């Protein structure tokens, strides 16, 4: 009996040792995955590699190319012009794919050296985009990077509507006038992102008339024959709290001959000069004593061969609320103010009033023919020989001087007052 007890004890201890060994084998098998000696840290000869050796081996399999995507992943209120781009260091880009969340692809251009990529055109507002970029290093090992971003929404962005148009030729009085579609509270930031320069070398200064309008002009009229350049670098500029600009634009326009026309409401004549020399004197009929024409320097902002003029649109109504006049075919009309001052042809007045009597509701009238087809009429001649931006000066009228912001008429402000309205 004693002999059998000892045998049982040894047997139990043997089973325990075997179990422990098997347990160890199971644990090692679980940690070593598929049993690959290189991945488990073991060498071909069964020796164990150091952690440094393992890291070094892994590093040799990783691309050295480092891709940077702008904007950062998850960015919002992203600009639509230059914010999206991809660059790489220690490698070259091999593929960049930009798509909308809906899967629509956006064309882009990879730089000749393979170091950068950017979209070919302006992105859409309020749109989520995804970028997937691939690059290779000198050893041909690939690196990948992905990001997504959302562009600024119309509600969180502003744009500026500008005049004159790109490529146009205008008169010497034409200011650069920008009207923003949102209130601008950081005027300095916005104005700092806009430059206006002239080949004449004239100093050009901006003036804020209100939170939405910014005009630029020199001290004196633009020099004839010069070229003016407007640059708007507003993309990403915060004009108000959480409201960003989206424009990046360059506009150039030329200044034509120096034409200034002076209307004398007292003598009822207009003298047209080019480069300081009188080229024509035209009899006119200005505003009546009850509705005189504004005095001051006014700039032609629009031209219409024929247009309708209804007194109700500018406050001239009868007892029934109808316009005191409604002429549907006013010939050769050129706007001088936002409030409705025009210099235009007049076919309904007798020939005898021109140069003799002031009869209008505030406009300057020139003798003309109905239909605007008689080139020999004074109204037709002046229309044909005028361009947007020409200056018309009214003097000796019984009215006040026109306000500088009523039309493109900032010339009625002193240079010191003009500069005082600059935010930079």
UniProtKB/TrEMBL annotation:
Pathway: Cell wall biogenesis; peptidoglycan biosynthesis. SUPFAM superfamilies: L,D-transpeptidase catalytic domain-like. Residues 259-395 form the L,D-TPase catalytic domain. It comes from the Bacteria. Transmembrane segments: none annotated. InterPro entries: Big_10 (IPR041280), LD-transpeptidase (IPR050979), LD_TPept_cat_dom (IPR005490), Transpep_catalytic_dom (IPR038063). Keywords: Acyltransferase, Cell shape, Cell wall biogenesis/degradation, Peptidoglycan synthesis, Transferase. It holds the Pfam family Big_10. Gene3D superfamilies: 2.60.40.3710, 2.60.40.3780, L,D-transpeptidase catalytic domain-like (2.40.440.10). PANTHER family: L,D-TRANSPEPTIDASE, L,D-TRANSPEPTIDASE YCIB-RELATED. This is Ig-like domain-containing protein.
